[in-house]
Amino acid sequence: MRLIRGFWTKAMRQGGLMLACLVLASCSSLLKAPEVDVASIELAGFNLSEQRFALVLDLRNPNPVELSLRRLDFSVELDGRPFAQGHSVQPVRVPANGTAQLDVQAVSRLTTLLERLRAARSDGRARLFYRIFGSAELDGVGTLPFDRQGSVPSWCANCDPARGRSGSSKGDKPL
């Protein structure tokens, strides 16, 4: 009898442990990826072939639990074309249903930026449309993909930001 009771106790303990692991694993699959938006972008340096950017990303956690972001790898497209790739340089915690900012670095070819700016200027657009996508590596959860779109100023000197188009009249030549 003692042998049977010991067997059942051990089986229940192992079964409970397996159940706890399954519950934790299923909870992690219910987590949503953080929402990532570009808050600011600055030129950090350049040479003849590439430029380096310092970006500040706004992270929004849509989950009821804190996210501990270990690493963020991302790519940026401007107007639907590949622009830059980068990664986070430090971990960050994003509070439950809260926000945080993350400093990241990105590298791009100089010709890519010039092509995008030239296209925006010739179209008279005051804004460039971006897409930022990649993966967020979270402590204890694994990796979650993210994908967001938005727009940033095109630095077009002859554009009307309110309309997103050129502010010049018909006879004016673009700068």
From TrEMBL:
Q: Which keywords does this chain's UniProt record carry?
A: Signal
Where does the record locate the signal sequence feature?
1-33
Query: Which PROSITE patterns does UniProt cross-reference here?
Result: PROKAR_LIPOPROTEIN
Residue ranges of every copy of the Water stress and hypersensitive response domain listed in the record: 36-155
The superkingdom listed in its UniProt entry is Bacteria
Q: Which Pfam families match?
A: LEA_2 (PF03168)
Keyword Chaperone in annotation: no
One of the protein's GO biological processes:
response to desiccation
The protein's matches in InterPro entries, at most eight in alphabetical order, are given as: LEA_2, WHy-dom
Put simply, this protein is called: LEA14-like dessication related protein
User: To which species is this protein native?
Assistant: Propionivibrio dicarboxylicus
